[in-house]
Structure formats: C-alpha cells, structure tokens
C-alpha cells in the first residue's frame, strides 16, 4: 500500500468516505427513477434482477474505481495514467478519465434542470398550491412548468450555484461538510416518510408490489434496464468514484467499504419505493405511470392525505438533498483535473466549469420550449443527453474500467490495494476480466439495438 495523499485533501475517516460516496450514489436515480422503472417493469422480479446486477457487476466495478483512485491519489485521467504505467500498460487508458469527465459535464446539465424542478416542487408543496389538485390539474401544472423557461432558469441557476459553491469550497470544507450534515438528514427524512407510508398508505399492497416475485412480468428488456440502472445509481463508469476514492484513507478496507456503499444505495432505493408505492396505491393510482410518478401522481396523492402538505414538502426536500449531493460529485473529477493540470485555484476551476455546465443546462431546459425544434436522432437535447450518458457513456466507461483492472493492472498491484482473501480476489478478477464486461456489452448492444 502507498502512503501518498491527494493535493485536494483526504476524507477525515472511512465513514466520511462511505457517506460521501453514498451521497453521490443516492440521487434522483434512487428516488425518482428506481420507483418508476420498477413500476413500469412489473415490480418484484425486476427488483430481484436489479439486486443481482448491483452485487455481480456494480460492486466489483466500484472496487476497481476506488482502488485505481486510491493507488494514484490523482484525478481520474492521471490516476489511470499512473496505474497503467506502473503495470507497463499503455497510457492511452487515461482516455476513460476524459470520457468520464465529459459524461459528468453532460449529466450535470440535465441533472441540474431536474434538480431545479425539485426545488420548484418544494416551494409549491410548501405553499399548499398542490393541495386537493386532480391528476389532470397536476399534469397541467407539471407541463406548464416545463414550458416556462424563465421559472426553470431561475431554479436551474439556483441549483447550479448551490452545487458549484460546495465544490469550490474543497474536499474537506465543502463536500465533507455538506456530507456530514445532509446524509444523516437524508436518512432521517427517508425514515419519517417510510413511517408515514406505513401508517397512512396501503403498505401491504406496496410491499407486495415490490417484493412478490412474478417472473412472468419480467421481460428481457426489463433485465437490461435493471443492469443499465445499476450503473447510473452507483455513479459508476465516469471517474466520480475514482476521484472520491483518491481521497480515501489508506488503512480502510476497500471491499467492506464498497459493500457498505452498495448496500446503503440499494436500501435507499428500496425504502424510497416502500415510501412511494403505498401512497400511490392508497389513492388508487397507477404504479406504472412513468417519469410523472413523482411530479404528477405523488403531489395528487399527498394533496388528499392527512398532513399531506407537510409530508409532501418533506418528500421533495429529501429528493432535493439527494440530488444536490450527487450533483456535487458530478463536478468533482473535472475540478480536480483542472486544478492539478493547470495549477489554478479550486475556486477558479469550479466557477469556470460551473459556467460551462450552467450554459449547457440552458440548452436542456429549453428542450421543452424555445429549443424544442432542436433534435439529435429524433430526441430533444434533454432526452438525448440523458440517453447517451446513461445508456452509452457510463456502460462504456464501465466496460473499459473492468477490462483495464482485469487485464492491464498487474494482480500484485490490485491485490496490494484490495487486500482480499485469495478466493475473493479470484472472484473479483473473474468479474473484471469476463462477467462485468460481457454483461455490460450485452446491455449496450441491446440498448443501441432495442428489442421490439
Ligand atoms: N448516482 C446518481 C443517481 O442515482 O441519481 C447519479 C449520478 C451521480 C451518476 C454521479 C453518475 C455520477 F457520477
């Protein structure tokens, strides 16, 4: 093991790293996307496949990202370069870092727009504007928001400033401070909402929907969605976890730490489902409503329930916190790179990057109004960026990272960081060399050539 430290700083403890990485992993993917794709894909059997993907593909790749970052203690591009060099591999592997940074910037541009929607919903839930609305009215309210660029711009700008400010403040003063306060708050909010769903919603129905395994409801396509999502939800394939890993203390066990992060991320997704579906069922709404589940169905449901205004507001605060800590992690690898490469101050790097992603975000928020005519392969800018990042860039990054860790990095260096038992190391190595790249390649293939 090495004794290097990153010039950006290091996490105060193993638990801070766990919470920061969990903050990155737990985001809109868990609370917005996971429940609605579970709903669209029939529930229990989908959840089971998702769990298998996390364990067999997600966790091993996350271990690889953490050890590469920690070994080099540099931004992802230089980390890949150093680790490749040590194993006498080609420095071109650092291109994974470059692609990852680009993915982070592109994801941020639409993530921040959705973060803005969430901030807007905190406001309208708090003021009671959504109390007693019908589904049609809620649908019209959401549609109206999408077509109102100035409101969207206001919230997108606020969300971008909140995020850039934390990254600019640094690993310890910024990210760590927000992590220490926001992650416990997130867990408490989630438990409060679970309690609310258990006491006021149709909890049994929600539980059955998520955990009753009916394989006849599972299609081959659903299995592909589950694997694709396991990537997005764990923030894999783009160097974020690598950058966070480069600030990890050297004594901590990577295997146990990564397992904890994976377990926490999964737990939050499952509990979010258990908090949402009982409320949906109690109000006789459709669990398969798609992306509108959170912004249309839930406000209607909360609006009809006891203390719905309070708990509805808390729900959107929870989503806002989750989105914020993830957005921070989207910018960190690039800021670290700019600081290390151009020897500029972190605040300068953060503001420069902030301006770029904010401007790109405007192209995304205009997708529903003044830029709706601009399309790429038939998709508006927002959908296109979501599609190419989540479905192509992250899985591609994942394959390359696993191939790099399995075939290029010498076993002795990997094992020096991972410190696994012989059996576990073989299993991990097998996953890097074969299981993970093959599984992800299959998903990529079918995402690009969808099954009819
Ligand atoms: N994991 C986040 C979510 O589930 O919402 C999204 C994300 C954050 C993806 C950071 C990638 C990343 F680097």
From TrEMBL:
InterPro entries: Na/ntran_symport (IPR000175), SNS_sf (IPR037272), YocR/YhdH-like (IPR047218). One of its GO terms (cellular component) is membrane. It is found in: Membrane. One of its GO terms (molecular function) is symporter activity. It is a multi-pass membrane protein. Keywords: Membrane, Symport, Transmembrane, Transmembrane helix, Transport. It comes from the Bacteria. Belongs to the sodium:neurotransmitter symporter (SNF) (TC 2.A.22) family. This is Transporter. It comes from Marinomonas posidonica (strain CECT 7376 / NCIMB 14433 / IVIA-Po-181).
